[in-house]
Amino acid sequence: MAESPAGYKEKPHTADWELKVWAPSLPELFAQAAQGMYALSGARMEPESQISRTLDLQAADLETLLVSFLDELLFMGEQEGLAFERFELQVDETSEDSYKLQGKVHGARLAHLAKEIKAVTYHNLSVARTQRGFEVNIVFDV
Amino acid sequence: MVDIQDMNRISEYEWEIPQSFRKDMRVPVRIFATRRLLEQIMDDKSLEQAVNASTLPGLVGQVVVMPDMHQGYGFPIGGVAATRLPDGVISPGAIGYDINCGVRLLGSQISLEAVEGLLDELASALNHHCPSGVGGKGSLRLSEKELEQVCREGSRWALRNGYATEADVRRTEESGAIEGADPAKVSKRAKDRGRPQLGTLGAGNHFIEVDVVDQIFDAKAAQVMGLVEGNLAVQIHCGSRGFGHQICSDYVKDFQSAVRRYNIELPDRELVCAPLNSPEGENYLAAMRCAANYAFANRQVLAHHARNAFEETLAGRVPNWHLHQIYDIAHNMGKIETHTVDGEQMQVCVHRKGATRAFGPGFQGLPSEYQPIGQPVLVPGSMGTASWVLVGTETSMQRSFGSSNHGAGRTMSRSQAKREVWGEDLHKELEAQGIRVRAGSMPGLAEEAPKAYKDVDAVVETVAGADIARKVARLRPVAVIKG
Q1: What are the structural domains of chain A?
Q2: Does the predicted model carry a pTM greater than 0.90?
Q3: Element (H, E) at B270
Q4: Residue of B73, B243, B246, B271 for testing the chain A interface, max A β-carbons within 10 Å
Q5: What's the gap in Å between the CA of A131 and the closest CA on chain B?
């Protein structure tokens, strides 16, 4: 079965969680990574209460931008009890060693969260260009 | 891939990957394992991660890995690495996100016989008193100033606020407060996460367990600790919660640019590091120590809650329901210690990630009663299996930077465990074995199934066989509380 153009898949790891994420564009890659992270942690949102947040992040490389983006979502999960399912993101390379993420994330209050994610790690983290777009493996410490 | 042919067998319990195995290795890798455990270890990428760890600048001696080793992220779980002062590096990822995750053991005069009929009630009371679960917040809401006091004082803060006894503090690694903590080096975000979480267990593999002392191997050491066969004991396994996770995350991110500044080349970005004497290295050390002290205080407040649960359930029903502290150890830490390497005494930063300090007899930093027997080493097993109390030895000082293992070690991924084990079935199975279970989540319980772990007895036989720790007592669980 052919894989869809954008998605995520869990890979085997002895103690932690490894997620393979792919998408045709960087904003979609970031959105898929977020959705994969929520799926792994068993996040369920309340049906009502639509909430949006604005993000504006900068980093020296794409990997750090991705880690910062997911960290931001984890932090809003823990502090405000929020999770997000719709992403309007823009990811740009502003200069040789500066990347920027701007946009809005839309979601709701968390009704339930099954698993705790301690951190998004840099373990073998590398955003790669592929024929169909972009791909990255992310290991979460759980 | 590391193959068994690439290794030298040193003894039945010890193997070495020589420095010549890969050109970027700075020191050899020493593995404490039997052939059987080694074969299990080779199923995942942990040895490759140990070889990667051996490339850190300023390493001395060898990277040591314990028989409970398994694949982590960057640095393997069960790894020990020492870097020399002043210019060796400190690597936050080689300590872990859960800074000063550790184990506390409390002993009692309560015989299992006397409370057999009250264990259900006791398990429920512990579950009620000790907040647990995902993102769990506790009964305390620390002000910024109080959090800074916790950062500096650790268990001493708990003592001042009525959550500890003098004996608890004395019988804690570093007396519950490591020096050199500086809250100014901790981000606002970490502080925001830390303030509501003191005195909480969290989720994942963290737990509170009521055990019975099943077997004594060293009568003298057991007597000194107050461990009596047939009596109850309590283990608390947790760490520095979101506070520590955030501090590690902040510094791993920060060090991504530090490695460029110091021209450090590494095989994995999670191993990022900075020289111990650089501003970056010093800042991380000061922040890490805040998290370490937070974790000591966290386990102390949880011990206080556990005592309340024991009092509520057992006061007036058994003659002496008190819980006394045996010891509290860290198993994710970086510590400045003095060791002898190749005949030369030197100060080093020992990174232990999923490894326990196991100092031998005579170490001045131990409470006086423990100096003749060596430092207690607390080894929680997987849920439903045994846990062990060991003591450190002279040999551990010579062969493993005074370190031993920290648990049984996983062998099976969480998703495989969930596919093979149904949480509700496991719950029933454990109850049938006489183990009361209070778990926040059934899939979470399945992930921690005993079959997902190595045989803790075989792991302990290995460290005992290698003489890096000595057996004192074996504990058997009767009640488990999990987030």
Answers
A1: 45-113+126-142 (3.55.10.10)
A2: yes
A3: none
A4: B73
A5: 25
Tell me the chain A residues in contact with residue B483 when contact means C-beta distances shorter than 8 Å.
116
- How big is the A-B interface in CB pairs under 8 Å? 103
- Burial status of residue A10 (CB atoms within 10 A of its CB: 0-12, 13-18, 19 or more): middle
- Distance in angstroms (rounded) separating the CA atoms of residues B140 and A87: 35
The ranges assigned to domains in chain B are 4-411+453-482
Rounded CA gap, B179 and A34, in Å?
39
Do the beta carbons of residue B474 and residue B214 sit within 8 Å? yes
| ipTM tops the 0.90 cut | yes
Interface test with A, best of B99, B132, B249, B266 (most A CBs within 10 A): B249
| CATH code for the domain defined by B4-411+453-482 | 3.90.1860.10
> Taking a C-beta distance cutoff of 8 angstroms, is the pair B296, B203 a contact?
no
Query: Do the Cβ atoms of A81 and A35 come closer than 8 Å?
Result: no
- What does the alpha-carbon distance between residue B422 and residue B428 come to, in Å, rounded to a whole number? 10
Per-residue pLDDT of chain A (142 residues; tens, 9 = 90+): 567 999 999 988 888 899 999 999 999 999 999 999 999 999 999 987 799 999 999 999 999 999 999 999 999 999 999 999 999 999 999 988 899 999 999 999 999 888 889 999 999 999 999 999 999 999 999 8
Q: Residue A2 has what pLDDT? A: 60
3-state SS class at B34? coil
Interval B297-352: pLDDT, tens:
999 999 999 999 999 999 999 999 999 999 999 999 999 999 999 999 999 999 99
Which residue numbers of B are catalytic? 406
Query: Which residues from B are below 8 Å from A when comparing CB atoms?
Result: 44, 46, 70-74, 77, 93, 96-98, 134-135, 189, 192-193, 202-204, 242, 245, 248-249, 252-253, 256-257, 268-270, 272, 410-416, 441, 443-444, 483
A2 at B interface, C-beta within 8 A: no
Please state, in angstroms and rounded to a whole number, the distance separating the CA atoms of residues B385 and B453: 10
